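Subgroup meeting minutes
Present: P.N., E.W., G.H.
Scribe: E.W.

1. P.N. recapped why we're keeping a running log of single-chain structure predictions: easier to compare across weeks, and new members can see raw inputs and outputs side by side.
2. G.H. added today's entry (271 aa).
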Amino acid sequence: MDVGVFVQENKRWLIGCAVGAVLFLVGRAVIGSIYDADADNAAALQAIKAINKAELYSRAALEAARTEGEQLLRERERLQRELAFVPSAKYLLAGHGPPEDYLFQVGHKLKKWVLAAADERDVQVADKDVAWPAVSGVDEIRGVLFGLELLEEAAQRLFAAHDAVRARDAEATGLRAIGQLKTDDRRLQRAPARSARAGEIDLRDHVVQERLSFQFQCDAATLMGFLEACRRPDRTLAIESLQVQQPQRAGDPLLVKGVLSGIAMKPKEEK
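Output recorded in log:
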């Protein structure tokens, strides 16, 4: 095991051991002074001096631990930018009035836009296939709004992939149909509550995750464009699962099914 990691993970234990050792030697010195002031007390004092002069770990090990900690912090920040999804103000409740009313407004406008954008591109999609759960309560509404932003982003990137393919080849299949864009019910995502173990971190206290199930028919070029577009700093749509069914006849589109998720850091006031 790396010394730096061991120090970081066991800092409290090491400090406790060091303090305990010092207290033991001090106590021994006091007792020795009562029974044998010349011998035991002198030996104990020498041991205490040795403890004070010695270092639990060398300066090189501590410096290595500090350097490694800084590297881990930078790596965490990089991964957070690569994997996290930062919600926009449009999909936050702050400053938008009653939560139920705002959710209705945002959802209505979003569905209307998806259907209109699909119609402009001659892409088949039904009203019922663009859906999200009916919820109440501020926390539930906040989660659905996050899911709706994922839905909008997925639709935008899917349409953009279609447009790029058609721009290169007007006869290309592109996106043929959308069979599903549906945010998951947050109540079904929750794991049973349990007591955290000592020192254990519950990720639910620090991050929020929402999922979107999707299904569409397209050609291979459109699928690749969509998948490449899912990765974007601070706006990543993480692909949790993906199934691609090959067409039975040449020239028919692929059937694509899957689940993507958005992972956002929880604001401090919500922790």
